[in-house]
Amino acid sequence: MDILRIATAGSVDDGKSTLIGRLLYETNSITGDKIEALEAASKRKGLEFTDLSLLTDGLIAEREQGITIDVAHIYFSTPTRKYIIGDTPGHIEYTRNMVTGASNAQVSLILIDSRNGVVEQTFRHFFIAMLMRIPHVVVCVNKMDLVNYSQPRFDEIVAGFKAFAEKLAFAGQAIQFVPISSLYGENLTQKTEFLNWYHGPTLLETLESLEVNRSAAQQPGRFPVQYVVRPKTEEFHDFRGYAGKVTSGTFRPGDDVVVLPTGQISRIATIEKFGQALETVGPKESVVITLETDVDVSRGNMLVRPGEEPESRKELVARICWLDNQPLAAGRTYLLQHGVNDTKAKIVGIDEVVNVQTLDRTPDAPQLKLNEIGTIRLKMAKPIFADRYADNPANGAFILIDEYTHSTVGVGFVE
């Protein structure tokens, strides 16, 4: 059974938490004691209905303010597939949380309040879905009950969203629109007579039918070496293996590989996992690879197939989302972490800062502030072997780390 990873996005009070709670409720993913606790909590709040949003608003501050602050991961399943939902905050102050929640998503679920329509926050949410190269976007026009289930209002919102999305969407990105009322569960898992003018699938049917083709297995093979295995035992005194996690692509015994950065060529002898030999290995699998010849391989080296080598980059241009209160400015140095490798990196310049609401660009900006997104140029002390994020997301992202506080201050995407 496959797993679909979803990142939710929406402005404050658009109903994300209620939507997720309703999906859990209607797929029988809530235990009886939790339902009783929700009913009791709703009564304490003076509500005449069960507030399903309390399922996901886990922090006390979230419950008190009625907003989502942290990224919560919610799990549920149907007979068709398993789901992991990243419930991310929608406010501009939590852009960094939104980027974190969307980092592994295959679907972006964007909520729009039917009364307010497309707002500035909607632009930001879609911009991040584009930035993270999320292949599927499902736009849920929520609270249709508050606009009398108006088809003209739904069509107006769809047209407004498309007008903006056409300027940003990358080739192959699919966008679908579903009218819903999460409070009453209308058109989530069951159709409703109030929306009889809508002839498309329900939200759950939409999610069930998505074919997620963005597979890192289809990308060029990338195997960063994390550790050289040399057992100090008599039985395995000649053993030399290379432990790591496959970033992208697939590897099989018999494949020719190039060792980067030395360029030496060898062939895979065996692939092992917990002592068992494997015939093939794919993305996110941690294994030990042995080679037929004794070549020089160290931690931080990368095994790739001949003809599929990534570019050796000592300078790069990258789109970056800034996560720190201390602004990024030209001339500053940071640690750049790409996979298992890290190196000192100097900010050569800030080419532009993007206003994701208007798409206006400020060239040669003096700094990049918290939650802002821009394009920067970096120069590194030693090269990294990175792909363009658009070509291979698994090997095209990095983080910047403050050398003194050791906190993550930025997440970057190689252009």
Describe what this molecule looks like in 3D.
It is a single chain. The chain has 415 residues and is an alpha+beta fold. Helices cover 17% and strands 34% of the residues. It folds into three domains: 3-214, P-loop containing nucleotide triphosphate hydrolases (Rossmann fold, 3-Layer(aba) Sandwich), CATH 3.40.50; 217-304, Elongation Factor Tu (Ef-tu), domain 3 (Beta Barrel), CATH 2.40.30.10; 312-414, Elongation Factor Tu (Ef-tu), domain 3, CATH 2.40.30.10. A hairpin with a 6-residue loop joins strand 17 and strand 18 (361-363). Mean pLDDT is 87; it is low at 59-70.
Terminal Cα span: 34 Å
Kindly provide the name of the CATH class of the largest domain. Alpha Beta
Fraction in beta strands: 25-35%
CATH architecture of the largest domain: 3-Layer(aba) Sandwich
Largest beta-sheet characterization? 6 strands, mixed
- The level of helicity is 10-25%
What's the topology here?
Blueprint: E1 3-9, H1 16-26, H2 32-44, H3 60-65, E2 72-77, E3 82-87, H4 95-102, E4 107-113, H5 120-131, E5 136-142, H6 151-165, E6 174-179, H7 203-209, E7 223-229, E8 241-245, E9 256-260, E10 264-273, E11 276-277, E12 286-291, E13 302-304, E14 312-322, E15 328-329, E16 333-338, E17 341-354, E18 361-363, E19 367-368, E20 373-385, E21 397-401, E22 408-414
Parallel strand pairs: 1-3, 1-4, 4-5, 5-6
Antiparallel strand pairs: 2-3, 7-8, 7-13, 8-12, 9-10, 9-13, 10-11, 10-12, 14-20, 14-22, 15-19, 16-17, 16-21, 17-18, 17-20, 21-22
